[in-house]
Write a structure and sequence with these properties.
Elements: E1 9-12, E2 19-26, H1 31-39, E3 47-50, E4 53-56, H2 58-71, E5 79-80, H3 82-94, H4 107-144, H5 151-161, H6 166-188, H7 197-235, H8 238-244, H9 249-287, H10 292-302, H11 305-331, H12 337-368
Parallel strand pairs: 2-3, 2-4, 3-5
Antiparallel strand pairs: 1-2
Helix pairs in contact: 1-2, 2-3, 4-9, 5-9, 6-7, 6-9, 7-9, 7-11, 7-12, 9-11, 11-12
């Protein structure tokens, strides 16, 4: 029997030269020797067998982890004895909990952070596109098999994201409409054209502000709620339990939220348009001496229905983006409360940014099409 205190060493497997067989004591007492041995390991190593190691402690596991990272090896493929496995898994769990390094300043470090940020955003964009494709496939599957449709869950989320948001959307839209009318009146007064405030408020809210304000409110309110709800389930391993039961988390958690938001956002947008027009009418009545009857007569005479369709056509797309981002970030939670908070913040930022960017692109497109 080998001496339990023998120094650490390795040898190539006779049947597989790219596989290292570790022997000896891989412990703190031999930390220097372990480092020297691993630095001399062949470059073509593709697997490590530690099942013949006599003694192993945290220092040995950490050295092997760093070796795997340097060589680009999958540490999960390392073979350990059964009585060492619990120690290895414990070290893997805490290896990433070390305090982060202090932020480094300088041109090179700034460029490095910029590069990492661009790479991370690129991966997020790819993940979002892939998630969209997966949901479209499963939505098609649901249409072919209607029994998969979760009507109770969908109606619940329609109430949560739609009815509960009506007071906030209506109030903010009313106030923004009043502010736009007041600011426009102050400028147009110098030209004796206060009556054109009607067109200013009407076009602004029918084409842009109604849908944009509603989408931004729901991006902050609903996307964060979706991420927190699904993220908490992910942290409590409920999503894994759903898969274990043979159910699809997309059918159960994601599609009801997407459908609910795509139904309710156009309705909330319509309410926001009415509230914004009402805000402009109030300012016209009390500040510009334009009676409500004259205000609406002017609006009826000058407004075209195409402005309404331009605004309302954006609502389903914004709803799809907000719900996809919120659900995807929730499913990417890694299992801790900190991860839930980080993903919730990320979902709000991404949803609002994408909504504004898409709105700008669509506004330019409609202008070019003269619609």
């Amino acid at each position: 029997m080998r001496d339990a205190s023998s120094p650490p060493s390795f040898a190539a497997d006779e049947r597989d030269p790219a596989r290292l067989r570790l022997v000896g004591a891989w412990t703190l007492a031999y930390a220097t020797t372990i480092g020297e041995r691993l630095r001399t390991a062949p470059q073509d190593v593709s697997a490590v067998d530690a099942s013949e190691v006599d003694r192993l402690d945290s220092a040995g596991v950490l050295q092997l982890l760093r070796f795997a990272r340097r060589r680009g090896l999958d540490f999960a493929e390392f073979n350990f004895r059964d009585d060492h496995r619990a120690l290895v898994e414990a070290i893997e769990d805490v290896i990433d909990d070390r305090p982060k390094k202090k932020r480094q300043y300088g041109v090179a470090d700034a460029l490095a952070r910029l590069g990492f940020a661009v790479q991370d955003n690129w991966h997020e964009a790819l993940a979002l596109v892939g998630f969209l494709g997966e949901n479209l496939v499963k939505l098609g599957r649901m249409l072919l098999a209607p029994r998969r449709f979760r009507i109770t869950s969908t109606v619940h989320h329609m109430e949560q994201v739609g009815l509960d948001a009506v007071p906030l959307v209506a109030l903010l839209s009313f106030l923004v409409g009043a502010v736009i009318a007041f600011l426009g009146a102050n400028i147009l007064k110098d030209f004796g054209a206060e009556i054109y405030v009607v067109e200013l408020v009407s076009i602004a809210f029918l084409r842009e502000f109604g849908v944009l304000l509603t989408a931004i409110i729901l991006a902050g309110r609903t996307a964060s709620a979706f991420t927190a709800q699904i993220g908490a389930m992910k942290a409590r391993e409920e999503v894994d339990a759903i898969r274990t039961l043979g159910l699809d988390p997309i059918d159960l958690l994601v599609l009801p939220r997407i459908i609910a938001l795509m139904v309710m956002l156009p309705l909330l947008t319509f309410i926001a348009m009415l509230a914004g027009l009402a805000g402009g009418m109030v300012v016209g009545a009390f500040n510009l001496d334009i009676p409500p009857q004259a205000y609406y007569a002017r609006m009826d005479a000058t407004m075209e229905v195409r402005h309404f369709w331009v605004g309302i056509s954006k609502a389903p797309l914004f709803a799809l983006i907000i719900s996809l981002v919120g659900c995807l970030e929730g499913l990417q939670v890694e299992g801790s409360a900190q991860s839930v908070g980080e993903r919730t913040t990320s979902s709000v930022v991404q949803a609002i940014s994408l909504v504004i960017v898409l709105d700008a692109i669509m506004a330019l497109w409609f202008m070019r099409m003269e619609f």
